From TrEMBL, chain A:
Lineage: Archaea, Nitrososphaerota, Candidatus Caldarchaeales, Candidatus Caldarchaeaceae, Candidatus Caldarchaeum
Protein name, as recorded: Cytochrome oxidase subunit I profile domain-containing protein
UniProt-listed Gene3D superfamilies: Cytochrome c oxidase-like, subunit I domain
Any GO BP: electron transport coupled proton transport
Molecular function in Gene Ontology: cytochrome-c oxidase activity; heme binding
Cellular component terms per the entry's GO annotation: membrane
Species, as recorded: Caldiarchaeum subterraneum
From TrEMBL, chain B:
Segments traversing the membrane: 6-28, 48-66
Sequence ranges assigned to domain Cytochrome oxidase subunit II copper A binding in this UniProt record: 88-187
MF term (GO), any: copper ion binding
Organism this protein belongs to: Caldiarchaeum subterraneum
Regions annotated as coiled coil: none
Any single Gene Ontology cellular-component annotation: membrane
Designated name of the protein: Cytochrome oxidase subunit II copper A binding domain-containing protein
Membrane recorded as keyword: yes
Keyword vocabulary terms for this entry: Membrane, Transmembrane, Transmembrane helix
């Protein structure tokens, strides 16, 4: 049994998730580059653009960002608690996640149009209007069902298994932490275990019922309540919103985990300025986020209770207050113990700066008065793109932290720094350019763009190309590496 | 001013620019302090605690100021209980959204009289963003099938454009319509 405890076999599944995430990132990124190219040249037929948009949204969000987070968080949890990451549960998570993505990709390539937020009832409306086939709709819906099972059930169960069940194997404890859930990096996993499953269960049941109706197992008329757009969306939005928040909280937890490990005061055990403040921030953030979802429905003021909108605004701003605790904690950690800049810490710090900056933009969109003038414009795209780039950059910091483990050798630090800095510049550049476009009222997800200044399109293209170049450098670094890591 | 979309961008810049300057300055200083062990040993816990309180007070002040101010930024005629009662002399613009276009009950309205925009969707999620003659996005209504959204506007003369701002399929970018608000005497 002892021989089976080799590090590589225990980390096989998370590493597989990491590489698969990279593959989806490449495919989704290529689709994103095509979209930019289409905007610049205006050469594409409209369906080709929207096919690229659908593929880009699905693959980057779930294949790339979610899977990267899942793989890295399993490694972190496994090493903190000394538990092996293997077995049927973890394998099912990996397989179901990627099978579902393949199904969604196939349906997108066959004409189904959605965004990562589904836009229900668009998938059904398109099929009933003959824009795509019922067969493809069925494939799409079952892809969604499997994806939801992976996200809502298998991933939280995997985390819970590591955190709460089984005995610690001392030889697997790579980064020992004090206490049960300390540091707060571990507490950041709790929303995925305790919040995402109960909020997600109704939408999973709804998707399964729709899937069963499409297969003829139950009559469509029997589920008409779920097919009402308003009913479906009231089930969907709390889940979708809290999923994104849980991913954001996981990113904050990664910051709490990485930064203390790159402090200059090597005499002490890695620690935050305040563990209590960290855990408080995560609880505060989680509770506030649970009530923030109504900001997605602000612009339905005459049919939705206005009180719900005020709750949405208040809760959205409270999540920002939660972030303020984290900002202080991280900066105070650096001040108190000194900081060492390495690729891991730099990526996390820059990703965190982007995350917080975007957080303010998100709070603006969570403000009723502004939302009426910005909803559906590039201002929202600025938020979405930035938050995904920010959390990915933070997790890339975790990749650099574990580079030796993932690749069997160290990174080329020059390439790593170049990758991180270019990604950050591109991230901030895209955010501010898109925000400017949003202020001009440019509709998002529109091809061709009805109106926008040439300079905006040029800058969008330039920063998009810079982001792509940065990731090409990252891939080169992964392939070539730089010998034995110096930590 | 601050409640406009341009105001949003300005406040974004006013808040995030100093934040980023201070953030990176503190990171730079923390790296420098890391090379001077004696400074780390002499770090005052009390000063950090004071800084924590000051920082949270600053955030809470900005938080409160923006939220209180924002109550006056909600466009007039939005979410107003008085909306249920017809305004004196109001005219109605009915907007039916579908994949991929709008049917308008009329394309000409009179300036000087309130305009009640009533909009709905017949198939999937759409929206209607109402753009002023100079291209400013005045207000957005999300149109969920089965719901009828309303807003009461007072419009200056000119040509207004409606655009869908929720992705609704391949014709999304082409989903627009115009209506004219004519000045007194039809000018």
């Amino acid at each position: 049994m002892a021989e089976e405890m080799s590090l590589s076999s225990l980390t096989l599944l998370p590493r597989l998730m990491f590489y698969t995430a990279l593959a989806w990132f490449l495919a989704g990124g290529a689709a994103g580059l095509l979209m930019v190219l289409f905007h610049v040249t205006g050469a594409a037929a409209v369906p080709a653009y929207y096919e690229a948009l659908t593929v880009h949204g699905i693959l980057m969000t779930f294949g790339g960002v979610f899977q990267l987070m899942a793989g890295l968080s399993l490694i972190r949890a496994g090493f903190c608690y000394g538990k092996p990451i293997r077995g049927l549960l973890f394998l099912s998570l990996y397989l179901l996640l990627n099978i579902s993505l393949a199904m969604l990709l196939a349906s997108a390539l066959a004409g189904v149009r959605v965004t990562y937020t589904l836009m229900f009832p668009l998938p059904a409306a398109g099929a009933f209007k003959g824009l795509w086939s019922i067969d493809m709709l069925t494939l799409f819906v079952w892809g969604v069902v499997l994806l939801l099972i992976a996200i809502i059930a298998l991933y939280p169960a995997s985390l819970a298994k590591i955190l709460f069940f089984g005995k610690t194997k001392e030889q697997l404890v790579m980064e020992r932490f004090m206490g049960t859930l300390s540091p707060s990096g571990m507490a950041s996993m709790l929303p995925f275990i305790f919040v995402v499953p109960p909020i997600g269960a109704p939408i999973l049941a709804t998707a399964a019922l729709i899937g069963a109706a499409l297969l003829g197992v139950i009559p469509l008329t029997g589920i008409s309540w779920f097919l009402e757009a308003v009913n479906f969306n009231y089930l969907f939005w709390p889940w979708a919103h809290n999923l994104m928040e849980a991913m954001g909280i996981m990113a904050i937890g990664t910051v709490y985990w990485i930064i203390p490990r790159y402090t200059a005061d090597v005499e002490r055990e890695p620690r935050l300025y305040s563990e209590k403040l960290g855990i408080f921030a995560i609880i505060f953030y989680t509770v506030a986020a649970a009530f923030a979802f109504p900001h997605h429905l602000f612009t339905m003021s005459s049919t939705q209770p206005i009180g719900l909108s005020y709750v949405g605004q208040l809760a959205s701003w409270l999540t920002g207050f939660g972030a303020a605790f984290s900002v202080f904690n991280i900066l105070a950690t650096g001040w108190r113990y000194g900081l060492k800049i390495r690729p891991a810490s730099l990526a996390v710090l820059l990703g965190f700066s982007l995350y917080v900056t975007d957080g303010f933009l998100a709070m603006q969109l969570g403000t009723i008065g502004w939302n009426y003038r910005l909803h559906g414009t590039y201002y929202v795209t600025a938020h979405l793109m930035t938050i995904l780039i920010a959390v990915t950059l933070i997790w890339i910091g975790a990749v650099y932290h574990h580079f030796q483990l993932l690749r069997g050798r160290g990174d080329d630090e020059k390439l790593s720094y170049l990758h991180i800095i270019l990604t950050t510049v591109a991230g901030f550049g895209l955010m501010y350019v898109m925000a400017t476009m949003g202020v001009g009222g440019v509709p998002r997800r529109a091809y061709p763009i009805p109106f926008a200044a040439d300079i905006q399109i040029t800058l969008l293209t330039a920063f998009g190309a810079l982001l792509a170049l940065a990731q090409a450098i990252f891939i080169a670094n992964l392939v070539r590496g730089g010998g034995v890591a110096a930590r | 001013m601050w409640g406009s979309s341009l105001g949003a961008l300005l406040i974004l810049l006013y808040v995030t620019s100093p934040f980023l300057v201070v953030f990176f300055l503190l990171v730079f200083l923390s790296v420098r302090r890391g090379r001077q062990a004696e400074k780390l040993l002499n770090t005052s816990k009390k000063r950090l605690a004071v800084a924590e309180v000051l920082w949270l007070m600053l955030v809470a002040s900005i938080w409160t100021a923006v939220n209180v101010s924002s109550l006056s930024w909600i466009p007039a005629g939005v979410g107003d209980p008085a909306l249920a009662v017809p305004a004196a002399g109001e005219q109605v613009l009915e907007v039916e959204a579908f994949m991929w276009g709008y049917n308008l009950s009329t394309t000409t309205l009179e300036a000087g009289r309130p305009v009640r925009v009533v909009a709905w969707s017949t198939d999937t999620l759409h929206s209607t963003g109402i753009y002023s003659p100079d291209g400013e996005l005045l207000v957005t209504l999300m149109l969920m099938p089965g719901m009828r959204e309303q807003v009461l506007l007072t419009l200056e003369p000119g040509v207004y454009t409606l655009r869908c701002l929720e992705f609704c399929g391949d014709g999304h970018a082409f989903m627009s319509a115009v209506f004219t608000v004519a000045g007194a005497g039809g000018g």
